[in-house]
Fold these 3 entries.
Entry 1:
Amino acid sequence: MMRKILFATILTCIAAIASAVTKTEADELYEKDKFADAANAYETLLKTNGEAAEVYYNLGNCYYKMDNIPLAILNYERAILLSPGDSDIRANLALARGKTVDKVVPPSEMFFVTWWRDLSNSMSMDAWEILGIISFLLVLIGAALYMFWTQLWVRKVGIYGAMLFFVITVISNLAALSQNLGLKNRNTAIILAPSVTVKSSPSDRSTDLFLIHEGSKVEILDGSMKEWMEVKFEEGKQGWIPVSTAEII
């Protein structure tokens, strides 16, 4: 009995390896304009190999070519979560969002909030972590120069350099932490249904507030219910929508 189970397991593993899709094969399908097949291949890659910004980006391109704008936006947004500093992803996301029905004008915000978001998203989490480690090492070197060197100008360079790199270390760690929290606490979603009537409460019998269309991005305020979730839209309006009409980024 055990031999049969072992043999079946081995056959299953061999079949899985044989049917595994590589990124090169998926890219070739895309280059041949076989966008549906390429999309399936990229989806398989994500399931087997885990999340990767480049794969999400290519998957978004497939859906964009297939004129499936909501899924294109969803995958571009997922790619940006992993690689927020990639200008190509942001450019394609802007193109896709330009094709949505709802043209959103986000509410104004304090300049330092915009500045911090742009700064923290200028590099990936891994890049910020590497910068933080290098900066911390330079802090130690600067402190060592100040404490153990005899020449005054070297000591000044050491202490001022240590102060500068300490600030960079703090900023790097805060930016990496901010991105890490964004990856773990995914509280945004993309509307996939062609149109959704936003309700005043989680009930079909509640008051209709307004209509929202596919491709819109929402912030999830309350996702504790099975069939409904409370969301806030980028322009500030909020209400309840069916869970089935949106997918979390």
Entry 2:
Amino acid sequence: MFRAVRFIVDLFTQRHGFLAFVFFLLIGILMRQAPVALKQSIINSALGTVFYPAQLLVSSIDGYKNIVQENEQLKEENARLRQETYHASEGLQELARLHSLVRFDDKWDFPIVTARVVGHNPGRFLTTLVINRGTYHGVKEDMPVFSMNGLVGKITKATYTHSRVQLLVDPNLKLSVLERRTRVVGFLESMDGHWLTAMVPTHAGVKEGDTLITSGLGGIFPKGIPVGLVKAVRKSDLDVVRMMDVAPFQEFSTLEEVFVMEKEPEWIIRELLDEQP
């Protein structure tokens, strides 16, 4: 087909006018004597040859549009699949954490309420959290709060559906602790809302690397919840007391789920301690 078109073009471009005239004259005579079916076939072939470049261009444009549309659809599908993969990964991590919490529940004689962290104080140091469980779920003030890593703090305010948690690093929270190896009881608090400091008797023999747990004294926290690790032991202003720098087991800024122990404060202990002989 292209060769026929090139032949006709060469006849005119090379100025063979007479040959062109004879060529088209013969074509005309043949067309007059040819059957109708042959005429129709020749006309269709000629029109197809003339309009083929335009058809090719239109087809190419349509093909390009289809490719662009398919590319956009593939991008959207890829983004959706990546989002679903991300959510699936987060769901598996959360499931693993909650499964650990369920196993941890067997260690205590008190019911446990699992909760999700939904907010925290905007101050310079993280001292309080907000969880999505309240009195409707059995949460009350002064109930212990902890995670798989260790002690988190206690409930200081409970509304119907949410509660506020006072963290271990809050300077207003005082805690009685027990060193696991020597079994000596000490007193732990935060001086600046960031670091933990504990005081123990000098003769106790506590050293760097020892582990602190809740002592069970005071009536709020049960005995045995991991608190932190002794990082350094130093002298204090009193010869009979040693100061310890303590690193908590729980990193509070990364908390996502916690659980609340439904343990009522043992106020009888406080009343007995306050009684005068």
Entry 3:
Amino acid sequence: MIVAGNWKMNKTPSEAVAFVKELIPKLAGAKAEVVVGVPYVALPGVVEALKGTNIKVAAQNMHYEEKGAYTGEIAAGMLRDIGVDYVIIGHSERRQYFGETDVSVNKKVHAAIGAKLIPIVCVGESLEEREQGVTAEIVRRQVKIALLGVDRSLLLDSKLVIAYEPIWAIGTGKTATNEQADEVCRTIRALLAELYDKDAAAKVSIQYGGSVTAANAKELFAMPDINGGLVGGASLKADDFEVIANA
């Protein structure tokens, strides 16, 4: 079970450090793996503030090249060097606003693995695609391409996380029903069993993301194929994130 907060473009470095210091006692007893995905500029301070705690740190994106003339980009090795543990890859907002593709997601997955970061790979369909009845096809394609060339051992060692985020439920207040969310997560797990085997598929944490709140987290996380959540707005409120992380 893994609960990750994606702060997106919120909180200054000083606000971020103050916030995680507030989270530390609230989440000390959490049974789930807890991760905070913070803006680049806040990463060093947050990593330092969380040393010795049970809360891990994620970057929200990265480039797939190790170094080079990529102005404004951040490499996986840079993140690892400052103590980052996870990286969110292929979030729908990156795909929608910044030209992320299935192919670039795959390159980033390999770069993250090479730097010993754990990738949280985001997949999900638009409202139009759901209404057209092609959710399974869209999500299967995204997962297949994202994991091209990824070794089975990474899955067995739980060094990969997949987050199912229906685009129509991100930041809209709409949430997939428990059954809808679990159905797609089950589809993803079945695909992993096809690509690898059942043992590897069983080891991968599959999160649900899309307007996860303190009110709905417990029921969502109780579904058989949902292993936690990638949480947006609610992760910016300490009391709400405490409830979600302990759900």
